[in-house]
Amino acid sequence: MRKSNWLLLALVLVLSSFLAACSGGSNSSGGSGGGEGSGDSASGSANGDQVYNLTIGDEIPSMDSSLADDQYGIQWTSEIQEGLYRLAEDGSLAEGIATGDPEVSEDGLTWTFTLREDAEWENGDPVTANDFVYAWQRAINPDTGSEYGPYMMGGVIKNATAVNTGEAELDELGVKAVDDYTLEVQLEKPVPYFESLTTFPTFMPLNQKFVEEQGENYALEADNLLSNGPFKMTEWNHGSTMQFVKNDTYWDADTVQLEEINLQVVKDTATGVNLYDTGAVDRTSLTAEFVDQRINDEDYLPVPDMASWYLKLNQNRMGEETPLANENARKAVAQAIDKDGLVNVVLNNGSTVSNGLMPKDFVKGPDGKDFRETNGDLLTYDAEAAKEAWATAKEELGQDEITLEILTGDTDLSTQMVDYLKEQLETNLEGLTVDVMQVPFQQRLDLDTAGDFDIEVSGWGPDYIDPYTFMNLFVTDGENNRMAYSSEEYDSLVEQASTDNATNPEARWQNFLDAEKVLLEDAAIAPLYQAGYSYLQSPKLQGVFSNPAGNDFEYKWAYADNAAAEE
Amino acid sequence: MENRKKELDKNLFRPADRTEEQSDVMARKSTTLLQDAVRSLRKNVFFMISLVLLLIIVLMSIFAPVASDYTYKEQDLNRSLMGPRIPVLENISFLGLDGTQTKTFNGNNVQAAEMKAKMQFDNQEDFITFETVNEGDGSRNSAEVKATYDKYAAKGVEDEYFYFGTDRLGRDVWTRVWDGTRVSLLIAVAAALIDLVIGVAYGGIAAYYGGRVDNYMMRFLEVIIGIPNLVVVILMILILDPGIWAIIIALTITGWTSMARIVRGEVLKLKGHEFVLAARTLGAPNRKIIARHLVPNVMGLIIVNTMFSIPSAIFFEAFLSFIGLGLPSPAASLGTLINDGFKTLLTTPTLLVFPAVIISVLMIVFNILGDGLRDAFDPKMRK
Amino acid sequence: MARYIGQRVIYMIITLFLIATISFVLMKLLPGSPLANADKLTEAQQEVIFEKYGLNDPIPVQYVNYLGGLIQGDLGISFKYDNRGVSDILADRIGPSAQLGIQALIIGTVLGILLGLVSAIYHNGISDYLSTIVAVLGTSIPSFVFAGLLQYFVAVKWGILPVATWNGFEYSILPTIALAIFPMATCARFMRTEMIEVLNEDYITTARAKGLAGTAIIFKHGIRNALIPLVTILGPLAVGLLTGTLVIEQIFSVPGIGEQFVTSVTSNDFPIIMGTTMFFAVVFIVMILIIDILYGLIDPRIRLSGKD
């Protein structure tokens, strides 16, 4: 034991000196950033090499901002490109290519943005309004095959859906360059959260000349990318390592202190932890097993995710009423699961119990209070109440033995979770048999779309910061409803929020609060938990903001405090 | 020798009573191939040890889950991740089978290290015993404390014994491992038997009828053999509903080819032998020739080949589970248990160790049995 | 010989065509699409994206397009990695896989032959028993169990070599060893049997009777003749390596083809699954062909003809 520790120590020493040598070398070639950072006392104590070594769970599927549709693509396109605005600390908006607030017409349909004139592409071209028009048209163009284009723009920007399905020409899209530095956007309906949308990669500008020059190869390698953001991609060894360095041509380059970010693809948590322990990486994510071990470490960092997880309770399966059409049956299911056990033992990854639909710390109302704080716990674990409701339900249905099928994904986490859910439901609700149906993601979606399930483990992660993204999920016949839930009251509240009250923040907020209450009083869904991530993070990482939507982390304001790491 | 010969009196000898009928009688009782094989196997120590081991594993896999107080799917989060604890053996400390967890903690001083230990072990101070390894000098993490946590006592389950510990959901690993062993064996034996039936039928028919039938059947076989079985198995698993049968079908879809080839080759060889010709000349029907003359003679080969295909099926099942295409939960097989165990290798290695040891022993045992049988049935190979 | 090779090539093409068809049919039976966020899109929006991948065409048309692409070496475009060609992805990843495979094959066969020789020469001695035990363990214990043991002890406990990932030669050592165990054990067992048989041949007895030194017999007559049949097991060995790379690359986070294949299988990225299937099939079939031809060339006793 003793001996092996010595060996390990020796290895750590060798490795760390080796790493120091490495990063030192690249720093000298990167410029005088380190000195600059330490001189700037206001932004904290950046010292030593301004380098982050991070892990990434998988190869980046796409660095094309029009096509990026997963966490890694969204994360890193957001670092090399910049849209009208950028997410800053606590999900607030900071100026990006746009300066000041947009001018909004009285009907809320015309938005005019003024762009800064000192923003440049890496190749020296200025970033103009035309770059935005080109990028937005590209994202909605059916030939591009973007998923977020039609999703984010459809129903928001004028004619977006028509253009996407080929019923309108590209130039009919409601966006135009009034002059090089003025961008005018026509909306289909008032969208109070439109500014927050523009931080998303789909809305980031593209240099038309460069993209067309690259043709099919655009964004396939580090060389085929053009940056206008705080960083640029310099290396991309597919499936293995990636490197981002500071972009000196960025308009706000003075703010950026970090010189270099290195990514290592690590799919296995154990490997990540080992790399972290040897100092090869500065942050790694943890799974349940490792949280047990590391939860008391100083380096342990839980980060809440804004994804809300719940059970969809289907009331009508392929034209036939399920036992869950009975409100008491739904209430029984929703209250029969010990969610504390679920998040603390089964998931144990930083997730927290959820007793509503809206996640905690996602949106604040005009009164400055968090949505969850105002609405409180709406549907909690209560085994006694569940048993009672279940007895009533069985009586009302005239059935003593009920079988329900639960649909879920086939990942390890889903497996553990569904094992637990089955056991909980069967133990607490007498006469209930739960059949588990585990299928790959795509198949689950097909079954979901067809409404072919009794209960589905489902989650929703927001792409922009507004309650609407959650609250419109369960309107009658909505794309994500698929569980035959229909409530006139709920529908009208959501409708009001996006029409009559769209420009009245207080009334709109109240609409959303009420809508959630209606949804959970009906026990339309059974809330389970709010997802979370757990990391081991070196104290060296400072000024890294985690975002409620879009890119998970923002590195523009980040710096390395190497002294803190050595303490 | 020479001297002795001289001493013998010729009168002691008399001509043997040889009549026409008796000339065919054997002096010693003739042994069948089977008896011969059994006799040689009895002398093979490794074979016998393996046979006993296999028997034990099979019996355990059938009876251990039944006799256990727990079921393979019964959960209790209160007893999540308990260490292995076995009666009697728990008293032999170095085996680590007493259900306690021991870990070393570092801190600036002894108190700080002990504090860390408490936080790690559910704050159950009363059930933690400390042993100071290094007093430390106050500098960063200089003190080292070895803490032993009696989780069984802390959770109030002193009278329970989880022989192999429990997993995250508090399921008894002992029950799950033996249950998984049974499932793995079942899959492997079923796959091997199906291979046997299809392979023998295909190879037998091709060889027996010969000519054009044989030619076409063999061309088809060659194409099938050309397909990498790994790929086909994975593709099949993808389209079938996950479960035991899906894995069996996926394994058999290409598995029968080697059996077919071997049987065909052997039957072709035997067909030319005089005793078959004789039987045919005497007017024996096809059915009888196959049953009486061909089958018994290729039996040894078939048994040996089946014996080798069982471990390869066990391996493939585990392999599929390992890349995430195994049995759906909560059912367990050795493969799924190993796959789960791998994720906790650094935190709770016991979850991997037990199924990994059993699968390794099973594979070794089957391979030794196969070797032994091959040597026994093939006298040429005998030492 | 030429006729034999010609015939084999024809079979090869038939086999590949069959594999292509089977994998195409199987993939069409499965749900799977290029959409990463299908839950967020309306059906009309989904159709637009399917159009880009040619998934709205009738299935026979898709089949013809697919076969046409295959002939030109175009394996299609990945569902997950937008706009990246499957051939490019495979090309990116072949390096690590090839390096691992070749290293493991060389180390495995060389060590295996040595072990087998030792066994045969000291037949029934202590070293024979030891190397037989090594061989039995090597063929029996699954490679992923070995890999786990190596990773746990060598990398984690003792910290001698990197745990995983792929950043230089030292990173390839552990996966190579884990991968080499199986060929080593197989070679050792095979070599032992062959060598014992060869040493009992009449010409060895003759050589011995002529008074040749023991080593001379073993090296001049024994090994050469025992090595020839070894070519026959190279095929199964290569297949074993192929299976091995899938799990070994996974365990050691090696960015190779096997790791990509497993990832794609779990994420239903069908163009990559089909492309990799075809790639594996071609490698496998060509390898078997080369081995058979080689064998025919070295061993004049084998008269190659159209029949077995």
Automatic annotation (TrEMBL), chain A:
PROSITE patterns according to UniProt? PROKAR_LIPOPROTEIN
Signal peptide feature range: 1-20
The answer to whether the entry has keyword Transport is: yes
Q: What cellular-component terms does GO give this entry?
A: ATP-binding cassette (ABC) transporter complex; outer membrane-bounded periplasmic space
Localization, per the record, is: Cell membrane
Organism superkingdom: Bacteria
In its UniProt record, which GO terms are filed under biological process?
peptide transport
Q: Which CDD domains match?
A: PBP2_OppA
Biased composition (Gly residues) is annotated at: 27-38
Region entry Disordered, spans: 26-46
How this chain sits in the membrane, per its record, is: Lipid-anchor
Q: Which Pfam families match?
A: SBP_bac_5
Q: Which UniProt keywords apply?
A: Lipoprotein, Palmitate, Peptide transport, Protein transport, Signal, Transport
- Domain (Solute-binding protein family): residue spans on this chain: 95-481
**GO molecular-function annotation terms?**
peptide transmembrane transporter activity
- Entry's family note: Belongs to the bacterial solute-binding protein 5 family.
Q: What is this protein called?
A: Oligopeptide transport system substrate-binding protein
Automatic annotation (TrEMBL), chain B:
Report the Pfam families cross-referenced here. BPD_transp_1, OppC_N
In terms of Gene3D superfamilies, this protein maps to: MetI-like
Report keywords, A-Z.
Answer: Cell membrane, Membrane, Peptide transport, Protein transport, Transmembrane, Transmembrane helix, Transport
GO annotation terms (biological process): peptide transport; protein transport; transmembrane transport
Location of the ABC transmembrane type-1 domain: 181-370
The topology of this chain with respect to the membrane is: Multi-pass membrane protein
- GO (cellular component) term, any one: plasma membrane
Please state the protein's primary subcellular location: membrane
Q: InterPro entries from the entry?
A: BP-dependent_transpt_permease, MetI-like, MetI-like_sf, OppC_N
Segments crossing the lipid bilayer: 45-67, 183-208, 220-238, 244-263, 298-323, 352-373
Compartments in which it is found: Cell membrane
**Classification via PANTHER family:** OLIGOPEPTIDE TRANSPORT SYSTEM PERMEASE PROTEIN AMID (PTHR43386:SF24), OLIGOPEPTIDE TRANSPORT SYSTEM PERMEASE PROTEIN APPC (PTHR43386)
Q: Which family does it belong to?
A: Belongs to the binding-protein-dependent transport system permease family. OppBC subfamily.
Which protein is depicted? Oligopeptide transport system permease protein
**Origin organism of this chain?**
Terribacillus saccharophilus
From TrEMBL, chain C:
Q: Where are the transmembrane segments?
A: 9-30, 100-122, 129-153, 227-252, 272-298
**One GO cellular component, as annotated:** plasma membrane
One record GO biological process: transmembrane transport
Cite the entry's keywords alphabetically.
Answer: Cell membrane, Membrane, Transmembrane, Transmembrane helix, Transport
Subcellular location(s) per record: Cell membrane
For this entry, the protein name equals Oligopeptide transport system permease protein
- Membrane topology according to the record: Multi-pass membrane protein
Cite the PANTHER family for this sequence: DIPEPTIDE TRANSPORT SYSTEM PERMEASE PROTEIN DPPB-RELATED
Q: Which organism is it from?
A: Terribacillus saccharophilus
The record's family statement is: Belongs to the binding-protein-dependent transport system permease family.
| Chief location category | membrane
Q: Pfam families annotated for this entry? A: BPD_transp_1, BPD_transp_1_N
Residue ranges of the ABC transmembrane type-1 domain? Answer: 94-295
